[in-house]
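Hi,

Apologies if this is the wrong queue. I'm a grad student, and the batch job for Cholesterol side-chain cleavage enzyme, mitochondrial from Marmota monax produced an output file that my downstream script rejects. I'm not sure whether the problem is my script or the file. Here is the sequence I used:
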Amino acid sequence: MLAKGLLQHSVLVKGCQAFLSAAREGVGHPRAPTGIAGISTRSPRPFSEIPSPGDNGWLNLYHFWRENGAYRIHYHHVQNFQKYGPIYREKLGNVESVYIMDPEDAALIFKSEGPNPERFLIPPWVAYHQYYRRPMGVLLK
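Support response: The file is valid. Your script probably expects a header line. Output copied below for reference.
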């Protein structure tokens, strides 16, 4: 989600330049006209149409860990955005997530959540932040 909005001097942008400069056009990834959203607001498309590396969550998790995904998660996401486009879904284990690259799309989602949004909580992260009295940030609120 952050790759498009990063500044040019960002470490992530410098480390991922080869991924970010690759073209994303191709079969299944048509280029949206500049300045116009590529998503039709007339009727939502089915969840199954969102590109994905596969529906076998345990196999995806195996590949993720084998590639040291936890230590290189930012590269993992940038590679997947290049491969699947500005929105993709990924199932790791029994958890399925949708990743969005465009900050404007993310803002739209946050605005439409309603007064009581639900967040996926990761208990060890929450315990760490509570124990050390650290701010939770957007991810854990």
